[in-house]
């Protein structure tokens, strides 16, 4: 896969290292080099922690293991972010190609942003992936290993949870053309389908029911269907202490494939391409 890295051999080496992590010195030159090579592949988008294959989320555990091994190997190092002094195990990216990045954006090494993405002041964790044409708005938090597709809009204050461990666990996945409303929270391996719109203030985890408003049918847990509009709601549940409303998502509209809801229309003006290579 370029850069002299044999990905198949590297995968085997890291899988073996992970199995013997309590027996071998993780600070050895060989172990450090193997982990660094994997993080380098993630950083340049040559591999990714998870991807959609035939409509299913496939997790590449060996890459998650590499991130966990990095945390075991690394010690906090002093760095500077603007006027602020930091001490962190994971350094920031040193270069971004073809991505518009505003002051205040914190992007960790080992994450990847495709050319054409726009990143406002926000935080992007290691192992995450942001697709071309996606807008990461102000104060968005993208957790480690979250996977965001192309032409997605993450509105202000959105939180996407990280999912490094357990290694086999599915990360948060936001598919192409989705719109996530302001202050929404998507966690615990939840998934927003292609072209779906999630209303402001929504909460979606792997246990949150997604209900069709027209029929009352529960469509899924933790997955918003493609090309739908879903808004936060609650439904009553009886407990010993009384009746209480528990959160759910209500699908209030089904869109035609390719149809854009008015709130989800992308603003091309903010997606002006920067120079091909931008050093940070």
Automatic annotation (TrEMBL):
Annotated NCBIfam families: PRK11830.1
Domain of life according to the entry: Bacteria
Keywords: Amino-acid biosynthesis, Diaminopimelate biosynthesis, Lysine biosynthesis, Repeat, Transferase
Name of this protein: 2,3,4,5-tetrahydropyridine-2,6-dicarboxylate N-succinyltransferase
InterPro entries: Hexapep, Hexapep_transf_CS, THP_succinylTrfase_dom1, THP_succinylTrfase_N_sf, Trans_hexapeptide_repeat, Trimer_LpxA-like_sf
CDD domains associated with the record: LbH_THP_succinylT
Annotated Tetrahydrodipicolinate-N-succinyltransferase chain A domain residues: 9-70
Record-stated family: Belongs to the transferase hexapeptide repeat family.
Coiled-coil parts of chain: none
Molecular function GO terms recorded: transferase activity
PROSITE patterns attached to this UniProt entry: HEXAPEP_TRANSFERASES (PS00101)
Gene Ontology terms: biological process: diaminopimelate biosynthetic process; lysine biosynthetic process
Keyword Amino-acid biosynthesis found: yes
């Amino acid at each position: 896969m370029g850069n002299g890295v044999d990905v198949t051999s590297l995968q085997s080496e890291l899988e073996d290292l992970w199995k013997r992590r309590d027996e071998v010195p993780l600070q050895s030159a060989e172990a450090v080099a193997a982990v660094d090579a994997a993080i380098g592949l993630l950083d340049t988008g040559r591999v990714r922690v998870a991807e959609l294959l035939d409509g299913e989320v496939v997790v590449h555990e060996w890459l998650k293991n590499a991130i966990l091994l990095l945390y075991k190997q690394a010690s906090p190092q002093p760095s500077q972010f603007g006027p602020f002094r930091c001490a962190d195990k994971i350094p920031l990216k040193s270069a971004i190609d073809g991505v518009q990045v505003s002051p205040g954006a914190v992007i960790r090494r080992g994450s990847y942003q495709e050319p054409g993405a726009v990143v406002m002041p926000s935080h992007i964790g290691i192992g995450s992936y942001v697709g071309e044409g996606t807008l990461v708005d102000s104060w968005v938090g993208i957790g480690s290993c979250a996977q965001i597709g192309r032409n997605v809009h993450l509105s202000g204050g959105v939180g996407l949870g990280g999912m490094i461990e357990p290694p086999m666990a599915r990360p948060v996945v936001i598919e192409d053309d989705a719109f996530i409303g302001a202050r929404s929270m998507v966690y615990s391996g939840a998934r927003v389908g292609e072209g779906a719109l999630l209303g402001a203030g929504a909460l979606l985890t792997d246990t949150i029911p997604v209900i069709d408003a027209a029929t009352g049918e529960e469509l899924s847990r933790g997955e918003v269907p493609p090309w739908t509009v879903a808004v936060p709601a609650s439904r009553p549940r009886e407990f010993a202490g009384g009746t209480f409303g528990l959160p759910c998502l209500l699908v209030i509209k089904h869109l035609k494939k390719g149809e854009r809801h008015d709130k989800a229309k992308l603003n091309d003006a903010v997606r002006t391409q920067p120079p091909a290579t931008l050093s940070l």
